Amino acid sequence: MKRFVQFIAGAVCPECKSKDTIAINPTDDQIYCVKCDFVEDRPQEKTSKNNNEINVVNLEDFKKNRDQNR
Predict the structure, then answer these.
(1) Domains in the chain: how many in total?
(2) Which of 11, 31, 35, 50 is the most exposed place for a label (fewest CB within 10 A)?
(3) Domain containing 16: what range?
(4) Is residue 66 part of a domain?
(5) Is residue 48 part of a domain?
(6) Span 18-40, mean pLDDT?
């Protein structure tokens, strides 16, 4: 049976600087480069210590809504 490899699109290896060569090992959640010997634990989602959230506004959407209301 062939092993399924999931790549991270656009990722650049920090060691060999190759693009699109970083894959995820689904069994132990490590990321690795298929071109060199780079291996590290997959970064975990950071949880915010405070509840301050940043609201991101797409200016183009804002302009469209503003123009429609005129």
Answers:
(1) 1
(2) 50
(3) 1-42
(4) no
(5) no
(6) 89
